[in-house]
Amino acid sequence: MTERSGQAGDATDGPVPTTPVCYRHPDRETYVRCTRCDRPICPECMRDASVGHQCPECVSAGRRSVRPARTAFGGGAAGRQGYVTKTLIALNVLVMVLSIASARSGSAVAGGGLGGLMGDSTPLTDWGAVLGLARFSDGIIGGVADGQWYRLVTAMFLHFGLLHLLLNMWALWVLGRTLEAVLGPLRFLALYLIAGLGGNVAAYVFTEPNRFTAGASTAIFGLFAAIFVIMRRLGRDTSAIVPVLVINLVFTFTVPSISVAGHLGGLAVGALMALVLAYAPRMRRTAFQVAGGAILLVALLGLVLVRTATLVG
Q1: What is the pLDDT of residues 27-64, one digit of tens each?
Q2: Which of 63, 210, 245, 290 is the most buried (most CB within 10 A)?
Q3: What is 78-312's CATH number?
Q4: DSSP assignment of 232-290
């Protein structure tokens, strides 16, 4: 009988199985694999997924491939926090404090129109309110027609007294948060500024050239029109908006110190901008919205140029 000699583990035996190790930590054995790339991962590298676990690289790649949440009109979801609305209110309050400080008198808070409830003008409102063309007490001529175009913007942040400020800021708080959440921060800010500018341009065009007008109400009326348009576009009930808008229009036409042109101008331009934002075609929504806003700005610029030519001609 022929004998064969040999040792255990000779070439006749099969391969010795090995335990998988984490691809990021080779010294750690693991039987868990990434459900996306199938690489072994240790407990430190595991990231919870909808099914199983994923490795850090696959989680990062998944985040990059996910598009950020958008509103129905293309805005960012950050608008739900109301940051722009809060910033605008803070800016208006700050300017009111500066206005009162510039006057160094309690009449800047109250003591003016509406039976003393409104405040008087201050050096700051004289500097930044909408004014067509007038000669000041020191003999200097000023106004938008004299090249002070900044008044068309600064006027929407100035107020005649504390009551004037509080009424506008309450309306901005109520309307602004809703519109910012629906439109997103940037689109809401564009709506606010263009509506406010539109109201100030209307005040410049249709108001006596030596009359000061100021206040956020030009932009606020634009927000009233916008929330009506936006809610209708979303198919929501607008019955609660109409009475509030009608009441504000009644005040506009009955209170002597209110700028009718400024309110109606803000209302009209706000409605037009809201239509641009709400009915932009989905495929090229952002480009359409930007172009629509630009067209409105050009039209407002044209009105300013025509009015200026009339006053200085």
Answers
A1: 888 888 888 888 888 888 888 877 778 888 888 877 76
A2: 245
A3: 1.20.1540.10
A4: HHTT---TTHHHHHHHHHHHHHH-TTS-HHHHHHHHHHHHHHHHHHHS--STTHHHHHH
